[in-house]
Amino acid sequence: MVTIRVILLEPLYGGNIGSVARVMMNFGCRDLVLVNPPPINDETRAFASSAIELLESATICETFEEAIVDADVIVGTTSKMGETENRHVRMPAYSPKALKAKFDGKKGNVSLVFGREDRGLSSDELSRCDIIAVIPTSASYPVMNISHAVAIFLYELQDLSPGEYPLADRYNKDLLYEHIHEFLHKIPYPPHKLEKTALMIKRILGRAELTGREVQTLRGVLKRTERAIKEGRESER
Predict the structure, then answer these.
(1) Where is the chain membrane-spanning (predicted)?
(2) How many CB atoms lie within 10 A of CB 200?
């Protein structure tokens, strides 16, 4: 079945970390990763209440890359949705309920990434995510307290149905994304469109819930296409 990990990227306040740990205990989620957090102090423990053990067992990472290295699917959360189809970094955005429909009956590791309390996740960090998720809130005040946001996501995802549909692992998906990027360079693709197109393809594939075999098939198609292009160029000489 799908296992859920909560990643807090550079949280600012120990009290919020403790509150997130408490919420995770409420919904049976015990995998917490902290990236460059403030020191765990008495305030943090007080807000954690009965979740001290979960708090003390949290994994501490120095970089975002370290935190997501073994995540089969990376879900980046944001309060700011893209306003047009050209804003690929923040689109398409899924609600917590829609995420449940995507992951129900699947098998793998899903990381929910929550950004800094004051400025969230950067565009670069969001571009590293497979899927973007937004909680539908009032447009007049969309930014939620981080522990409240975590609670809503975990509430929706707490009773996912077990399944044997295995999601592709992070390593092979990253190889595919790198291969696509290299392929666009080789075509050659218009330089001013390359990065946006590569991100758009990543978003498409991120929503596709690829299996390992599907990833290998796509890479095989790319390799055969590259070989055909090379042979065609050589025959023209």
Answers:
(1) none
(2) 15
pTM over 0.85: yes
Instruction: Give the angle subtended at the CA of 163 by the CAs of 157 and 167, to the nearest 5°.
Output: 85
| Domain end point (choices 166, 201, 218) | 166
The string of pLDDT tens digits covering residues 171-230 is 999 999 999 999 999 888 999 999 999 999 998 998 888 999 999 999 999 999 999 888
Note whether 142 and 57 are same-domain residues: yes
Burial class (CB in 10 A: 0-12, 13-18, 19+), 95: middle
Strand ranges (DSSP E) for 59-218? 59-61, 73-77, 93-94, 106-114, 131-133, 165-166
Both tokens of 19, joined, read 């509150």
Q: Count the helices and strands in the chain (H runs, E runs).
A: 10, 8
CA pair distance 60, 134, nearest whole angstrom: 25
d(CA 192, CA 98): 33
